[in-house]
């Protein structure tokens, strides 16, 4: 046996050094067992180190893998089916929705509305004693507070629109309570309950603010449009009044204006006119007659130029105008004579003097008859009707002094 066969193996010595074992190697059988155990341990440690190195390198390898060169599966391997994404619609049949109850049909005709019991809001204070409110039973389109009442509530017109946007139409009605000398109009909306009872949806608009009257209504989409007039249209001809169409919509709680003008401009036909005159002294002429001069002054206090004003003068029986001015006409009344005189346009701040020469019998003035003259400024005259002439005051702005009429005495002077 060569001598170097008994020399310590350098690999074994190095392994022992790195593993922290003893550097002295025992001899004999015990030494052989020790060497075998050391070599087996070294192989296990080396394998473990290699495995850790491979695992540590795996992420780096994976990061260098590209989709352009994926591993090719065997031809006989079936491609797996991708699961449905979360939230995808199910293939099971969708149950049908439960049918909803359709909204009530609030389209009510004028005849039906005019024979129904309707809930009416209160009227303005000056009409409360004349116009019915609350639950009111209509008949043939009208209703009265009492059978002998001068004023009557009437349904003038109805239109239909889907006011509350529920898919069914409701009803808007122009309703007025009017008499000979006073009255007001308003627009109300009506619907039906689920059992078909007519109910008041709300007040669309009334005569508030600068609205002095209403002429008509119309439906447009989901709104109600109302033709309103200013104060110059309160009881006088259309030519003096200004009119506008204003739109109103349902807000869910009530009606609000949603379109059209919100105010009237200054009316060019409305101005403050005044008239004044003194007592007339009639002087006897030696016979049974007496004569004098009635002088009247008409003034325009603004704010507009007065166009086509008319002067009316009423005289008692037995008193006549001896020289009727141009553009004046006379008509007999039950109590005397009435003269209507057209006046030229009057600018703001200007005055117009009218002189009427009068003649009367002294016996008529002494007989205790009404010895007064009456004069007023009107927008025109309607002429005699059944012996009674009726005119309307010239339209004036709100707050103007009530001085467009005057009265004086006819005094006989011996």
Automatic annotation (TrEMBL):
Residues 70-83 have a biased composition (Pro residues). Keywords: Membrane, Transmembrane, Transmembrane helix. The keyword Transmembrane helix applies. The chain crosses the membrane at residues 44-65. It comes from the Bacteria. Residues 84-99 have a biased composition (Low complexity). Residues 64-111, 390-414 are annotated as: Disordered. This is DUF11 domain-containing protein. It comes from Salinispora arenicola (strain CNS-205).
